[in-house]
Amino acid sequence: MTPLIRLQGITRSYPSGEGELQVLHGIDLDIAQGEFVAIIGASGSGKSTLMNVLGCLDRPSTGNYLLDGREIAELGSADLAALRREFFGFVFQRYHLLSEMTALGNVEVPAIYRGTPAATRRDRAAALLGRLGMGSRLDHRPGQLSGGQQQRVSIARALVNDARVILADEPTGALDSHSGEEVLSILEELNAEGRTVIIVTHDSKVAARARRVIEIADGRILSDRSTPGHTPAAKMTPDAGKGTVPVLGQLAEALRMALLAMRAHKLRSFLTMLGIIIGIASVVSVVALGEGSRQQVLRNISDLGTNTLQVFPGESFGDTRSGRVTTLVLEDGTQLARQSYVASVSPTVSSSQTLRYGATEATAQISGVGEQYFDVAGITLTQGRSFDAADVARMSQDVVIDQNTRQSLFPDEDPMGKVVMAGKVPLRVVGVAKASQRGPGGSTSLTIYAPYSTVQARYIGSTSVSGLTLRIADDVDMALAQQSVTEFLTLRHGSKDFFIINNDQIRATITSTTETMTILIAAIAVISLLVGGIGVMNIMLVSVTERISEIGLRMAVGARRSDIRAQFLIEAVLVCLIGGVAGVMAALGFGLIFEQVGSSFQPVYSAASIIAAMASSCGIGLVFGYLPAVNASRLDPVAALSVG
Ligand code: ADP
Ligand code: MG
User: Fold this and answer.
1) Which of 119, 437, 518, 593 is a Cys-bridge partner for 290, taking CB atoms 3.0 to 4.6 Å apart?
2) What is 5-244's CATH number, 3.40.50.300, 3.30.1330.10, 3.40.50.1980, 3.40.1160.10?
3) Where does residue 52 fall: left (phi above 0), alpha (psi -120 to 50 degrees), or beta otherwise?
4) Distance between CA atoms of 573 and 622, rounded to whole angstroms?
5) Following DSSP, what letter does each residue of 132-171 receive, concatenated?
6) CA–centroid distance, residue 190 to ligand 1 (Å)
7) pLDDT category of residue 53 using cuts at 50, 70 and 90
8) Does residue 442 surpass a pLDDT of 60?
């Protein structure tokens, strides 16, 4: 009959300095199913090294290891992980419990890696702990348990997948004699059930409890003595609960573990997130502010009226000659109004005059406009009426004042019907225009709207106008209309001594300018997000080093390299995702404050930008969590376990 474990000429050496340190020198050893073996030897004799080889935590340098007739050297790392998970159960001198988990949670870990359904493994873990006298301590964390209790939790963990072989490396080494005694009797009990128990110790009293004592010194077997007695029959029908959890459930497990790890290191997790929070908050805010200001500017432009062209004398705004160019006259407007593509024309003439009302004096712009001007320019009245075609025809002195004028001249009284002296001309107020918000802060100048005919006759004394506002027919293309107006007027004047402003052009220019600005500032915010991502990577790398012994333990109880990688990757993604949510909240909070402060425009948050922010936080987690995750998964479990 082949023994359960057969070692033939096993050696293990470590590179040291320029040469090699050989720790095991050709170990030959057979262990049968159901044996209780103690490996004894002085400190440094190679006991732990041998134990790690036995438990498939480490590979021998040379020699053959046949486990149940199978050559271990032929197995891949995933197969070895499966063996550690299901065939072996490790018990360590220093327990190696995960401090952020309860006793129950610790016992469940190997079953999670095995894929046992949650309810099954919880029942089983609770039953095992109950059996080991820990029934009342299921929810205690390792820090709240004594050494003996912690060792019992670790024995329960070794049993949760119903291991056939229990490997205990100095299980009583850190315990007082009473607790040590209890642990030994538990191991004896497990052996009596048919489990193979291999225990490493330097204490001959402990070794005396075993049926077979193998003494090693300097990596060689010195003696191998068996006490006669019967070896328990191989009962061993695994009852760890079959059935595996679907992928989604495994993901949920990984998420739960990541959350536990984050909860255990709240401050560190928060600091890791901080870069992401700031990055996401600034990207979302900047995009919202950009969109808000763009919409505000567009609203202002639409106040100016759509479908309108404005014709002014001169080359362009700021042309010093424009005041003297008198070729743009009323007749131009009259002729233009006859063109099919022009819906209406409203001439503007203006004159600056001193207003007097009672004791109050102020300078105002008298805007001479046509009766359609209010419609064309989108000006609405809060009070009274505007003037009509008849008023224009008879050069009426009825006028509309704007809010600024109203506040300057009539702070406490109703302006309707009052007569104001503008220069030498008396004007009667018949309406008040609503304040228009043109540009930040609005305008501070005073404006009075009067029929253009009145302004021409009373103030200017000529038929030249300071501008024509044309409303273009609805179905006409603006660019085409602009071109036609240009050709028409050039023909009339003999030269192009005017310029045309197209509101659509202004709108397009402003839109593209704000878009450029938004892209620019968003780029800066994205850089800050990258910096945040590098911060995440940095802290995750440090956290891998800090959690080396946790990673070693997880591998010892059967985690695959892919499990470790997934765990760290999920942690990174989770940190970034939570950071992203917090960042979006911060951005929304910023928007509320912005509103309270009462700015002229509000940030506009789009669902798209928020979704993009969340997606990029996930992406950052994946990208910057990858390196730490790979680092963690590449750790050597033996080296990792010996830390801490
Ligand atoms: P024991 O458990 O019997 O006290 P170990 O098996 O832990 O002894 O170690 C045996 C020898 O191997 C010691 O001299 C130790 O320094 C050496 N050793 C163990 N692990 C390593 C390693 N990873 N690298 C180099 N030397 C090691
Ligand atoms: Mg040791």
Assistant:
1) 518
2) 3.40.50.300
3) alpha
4) 6
5) TT-GGGTT--GGGS-HHHHHHHHHHHHHTTT-SEEEEEST
6) 29
7) very high
8) no
- How confident is the prediction for the chain on average, in pLDDT? 86
610-627 pLDDT tens trace: 898 889 889 999 999 999
Classify residue 592 by burial, with Cβ atoms within 10 Å: 0-12, 13-18, 19+.
Answer: exposed
pLDDT exceeds 70 at position 312:
yes
pTM: 0.71
What are the tens digits of pLDDT across the range 568-589?
A: 999 999 999 999 999 999 999 9
| CA distance linking residue 544 with residue 552, whole number of Å | 11
23 in contact with ligand 1, CB cutoff 6 A:
yes
**CB 14 less than 6 A from any atom of ligand 1:** yes
Does the CB atom of residue 84 touch ligand 1 within 6 A? no
Can you read off the two tokens belonging to residue 602? 């509000």
Query: What single string gives the DSSP state of each residue in 80-115?
Result: HHHHHHHTEEEE-TT----TTS-HHHHHHHHHHHHT
Q: Distance between CA atoms of 501 and 266, rounded to whole angstroms?
A: 60
pLDDT value at residue 147? 92
| Helices 103-114 and 147-159, packing angle to 10 deg | 20
Whether 48 lines ligand 1, by a CB cut-off of 6 Å, is yes
377 to 282, 307, 345, 356, 545: CA distances (angstroms): 38, 10, 11, 27, 69
The token pair at 50 is 């041998």
Closest CA to 178 of 146, 155, 210: 146
Confidence of residue 556 (pLDDT cuts 50, 70, 90): very high
Q: How far is CA 149 from the centre of its chain?
A: 41
Nearest-atom number in ligand 1 for the CA of 43 is: 4
Classify burial at 558, counting beta carbons within 10 Å of its beta carbon; exposed 0-12, middle 13-18, buried 19 or more.
Answer: buried
Which mutation among 48, 50, 59, 216 tests ligand 1's pocket best, with the greatest number of atoms within 8 A of CB? 48
Max distance between CA atoms of the chain, in angstroms, equals: 134
Domain span(s) for CATH 3.40.50.300 in the chain: 5-244
Is the pLDDT at 229 greater than 80? The verdict is: no
Q: Looking at per-residue confidence, does 121 or 318 come out higher?
A: 121
Q: Is the CB of 42 under 6 A from ligand 1?
A: no
pLDDT greater than 50 at residue 434? yes
Position 470 pLDDT exceeds 70: yes
Whose CA is closest to atom 22 on ligand 1? 14
State the Cα–Cα distance between residues 264 and 284, nearest whole angstrom.
Answer: 30
Tell me how far the alpha carbon of residue 578 lies from the centroid of ligand 2, in angstroms: 42
What is the b/e burial string over 316-335, where b = at least 16 CB atoms within 10 angstroms of the residue's CB?
eeeeeebeebeebbbebbee
Q: Give me 322's structure tokens.
A: 């424009």
The closest alpha carbon to 81, from 552, 555, 638, belongs to: 555
pLDDT at 552: 92
